[in-house]
UniProtKB/TrEMBL annotation:
It comes from Desulforhabdus amnigena. The chain crosses the membrane at residues 20-41, 56-75, 87-106, 118-140, 147-168, 204-229. This is Zinc metalloprotease. Binds 1 zinc ion per subunit. The keyword Acyltransferase does not apply. The lineage of its organism: Bacteria, Pseudomonadati, Thermodesulfobacteriota, Syntrophobacteria, Syntrophobacterales. It is a multi-pass membrane protein.
Length: 382
């Protein structure tokens, strides 16, 4: 399921490794589903389908199947990411979390054709994996390793299920993105195409929640709760995807200069953190400030860099020690597009950026101000 950065809650996770420059991360919620799948396979599925083995064999088979299932999810998401990179887009990260995986695309596809290619390659990779696992199962059966063959048969089936589920024509599933690419191509409007596929996706999400409710009342509590959670998540992402397209359209053609703040309140790098809190954060109410010395910009300091410090650290540390130093990652130009500025904020996880013109700071742009501009513009444009 490809996604933009803003579609998934920005939580910390465990960084595993990098593939083709893409960080593979596990969200802490992933361990919940990992344990649930491992337990259900080791205690339920394998003992029921293939009786006669000892408990250790079932747990070993369950562990192998669970690990390879999540490797399949990584490959599915990696296929989206590699296709996007091939089409000139930047991919920061793939995150495994409680509902599966998310490829964090930094921007929308530029054309309906690109959208189609990025979306369709995911299910195709799942079907290819199903063929590979089916072949492995056949080879193991021929070698009379029937129990391990069952593990790979399960993996073949689950990859087919993953591919088919993702082909459901509702945003944000891959099938919804394929449909969005077609509607975008037919209408010329990505906003209209996203609205239609998002509505279908939300309808599918509601259907999952209704089915989950019936399952709960019929005695299948865990399965029903799971269906409701998946439905709630899909509905939220579907609406978020449509709102993000509207935001991008509202920012189209607008430069940073039109929105930036020119009257800035700056702080000294030699100021104690305790004074920064009392004289600036509590007085002005801003969540970040430029750090300047002798009219030279040195960086920015934000509330997030202060809030977790101990009382002793607040008294003994200076702004210089905790600030984010000046770099191109926290700066934009006055003629840069507002959409690019928002993208940089998301990529760098920053709530404000410095506006530099010929190495001189001329303003500041904040995420709060940017979204206020979007809201007012959308209000006047109906």
């Amino acid at each position: 399921m490809p996604s933009k950065k803003g579609e998934v809650p920005g939580r910390e996770g465990i960084n595993l490794f990098r593939i083709a420059g893409i960080q593979i991360t596990i969200d802490f919620s992933w361990f919940i589903i990992f344990i649930l799948i491992l337990w259900s396979l080791s205690v339920g599925y394998f003992p029921k389908e293939f009786p006669g083995q000892n408990a250790l064999a079932y747990w070993f088979a369950g562990l192998i199947a669970t690990l390879l299932f999540f490797l399949s999810v990584v490959i599915h998401e990696l296929s989206h990411s590699l296709m996007a990179i091939r089409l000139g887009m930047k991919i920061n990260e793939i995150t495994l979390f409680i509902f599966g995986g998310i490829s964090k695309l930094s921007e929308e596809a530029r054309t309906p054709q690109d959208e189609f290619k990025i979306a369709v390659v995911g299910p195709l990779s799942s079907f290819a994996l199903a063929i590979v696992f089916r072949g492995a199962a056949g080879a193991l059966t021929a070698l009379q390793f029937s129990f391990m063959a069952a593990v790979f048969s399960y993996l073949s089936w689950i990859n087919v299920a993953l591919g088919v589920f993702n082909l459901i024509p509702g945003f944000p599933l891959d099938g919804g993105r394929v449909l969005r690419a077609f509607l975008w191509w037919k209408t010329g409007s990505i906003a209209r195409a996203t609205k239609w596929t998002s509505d279908i996706g939300k309808g599918f999400a509601v259907a999952l929640m209704v089915i989950g409710t019936f399952q709960i009342f019929s005695g299948r509590l865990l399965g029903g709760i799971w269906m409701i959670f998946i439905g709630m998540f899909l509905r939220w992402v579907a609406e978020g995807g449509y709102q993000e397209v509207l935001i991008r359209q509202a920012l189209e053609g607008v430069s940073v200069r039109e929105v930036m703040v020119t009257q800035m309140v700056s702080v000294s790098p030699e100021m104690k953190v305790s004074d920064l809190i009392s004289s600036f954060f509590l007085k002005y109410g801003y969540t970040g400030y430029p750090v300047m010395e002798n009219d030279e910009i040195l960086g920015v300091v934000s509330l997030s860099q202060v809030k977790d410090l101990t009382d002793e650290e607040k008294e003994n540390r200076k702004v210089r020690e905790i600030m984010t130093a000046l770099s191109k990652e926290i700066c934009v130009g006055p003629e840069d597009s507002l959409a690019d500025a928002l993208k940089k904020m998301i990529q760098q996880n920053m709530s404000r950026l410095l506006v530099l013109d010929k190495n001189q700071v001329v303003g500041l742009i904040t995420k709060t101000g940017l979204f206020r501009f979007i809201e007012i513009k959308r209000l006047f444009e109906g």
